[in-house]
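Teaching soon. Got one?

===
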Amino acid sequence: MAPPESTCPVSATAELVGGKWTLLVIRDLAEGPARFCELERSLAGISPRTLSLRLRALDVEGIIERSSHPEMPPRVMYGLTEKGQALLPLIEDMRRYGREWLCEDEAEMGADGAEPALLV
């Protein structure tokens, strides 16, 4: 998941965040640190293996940080780093674009007003 050796910043960013589920993981962590099971629940349809791979890759890239808490049972939390926080305006712009250009009406927002899943 390392950015390509390209000098194009758009290409490098697309390579970083373009993987399926990646932006949705970042979106969910924008609300604050979360446990693996919380992320798995909020990302309906993601397999545990895929979530694990995404979290590991985002950790390697410095987008998220993994913190272990020595409790019984052990607790692992995932949260955004400063580098990860810097991606939030991109996600907000995608949300705004989706509302304006891709959602035909407010009915697509869901009965509870919840955001639709981003298409990535």
